[in-house]
Amino acid sequence: MAYIQMKSIVASEGHPGLVLSLTLRMEGGLPMKVTSRDFDELREMHYLHAAITEAMRLYPPVAMDSHCCQNDDVLPDGTFVGKGWQVTYSAYAMARLEELWGADCEEFRPERWLDEDGVFRPESPFKYPVFHGGPRMCLGKEMAYIQMKSIAACVFERFSFRFVGGEGRPGLVFSVTLRMEGGLPMRVKKRRDSVC
Ligand code: HEM
């Protein structure tokens, strides 16, 4: 079992802006400090941004989202929704619609988010509703990306991970948030070229 502890520290010389300090704790091992990146470095990591976005497209943390209609209303496509009706959309199912994402919709392909210069190209939140869309969209989206990119950049640079959960894909548990049945067992190895 391994987990990451994260805290924000104030900028130091050469690291403008807020800097995140990460500690990797592995079962039976001593905690290891893995120093994070500053905002500018993280902003330039387009492929990582695309890979995280693509992972959440296929496995959205909020796989299904329900809202109750307060008053009679009409959706943009003309569908009537009555007062008190429950409206649910599934970001998980939407990711698997060919008419939205093309014939390779079930494939993990970060490149679909990059333009020809390798720059991240966002999609409409109504096509990619992982953070919801409209006026009640997630307020923590940018913070969430900073945390995810920071952890991934620091950890993958120093360690390699191999899935040791057996054959096939891990099972999924659909609850308020999507999670993996029994976790995701990994063998963690320090990379030979690691600096720490
Ligand atoms: C990958 C991480 C995250 C995902 C996928 C996510 C997803 C979502 C979704 C789908 C909603 C809409 C819920 C609804 O009303 O039906 C939401 C709302 C919200 N999220 Fe996040 N979220 C994430 C991280 C965060 C973080 C880190 C924060 C705070 C720092 C945050 C703060 C909020 C708040 C305050 C709302 C309510 C917005 C409103 O109703 O006006 N979220 N988020």
Automatic annotation (TrEMBL):
Which cofactors?
A: heme
BP-aspect Gene Ontology terms: lipid metabolic process
Which residues participate in heme binding?
A: C138
Protein's UniProt keywords contain Oxidoreductase: yes
Q: Which PROSITE patterns match?
A: CYTOCHROME_P450 (PS00086)
Q: Which InterPro entries did the record assign?
A: Cyt_P450 (IPR001128), Cyt_P450_CS (IPR017972), Cyt_P450_E_grp-IV (IPR002403), Cyt_P450_sf (IPR036396)
Keyword Metal-binding applies: yes
Q: Provide the GO MF annotations for this entry.
A: heme binding; iron ion binding; monooxygenase activity; oxidoreductase activity, acting on paired donors, with incorporation or reduction of molecular oxygen
Q: Which UniProt keywords apply?
A: Heme, Iron, Metal-binding, Monooxygenase, Oxidoreductase
- Record-linked Pfam families: p450
What family does the entry list? Belongs to the cytochrome P450 family.
- Give the protein name, as stated in the record: Cytochrome P450
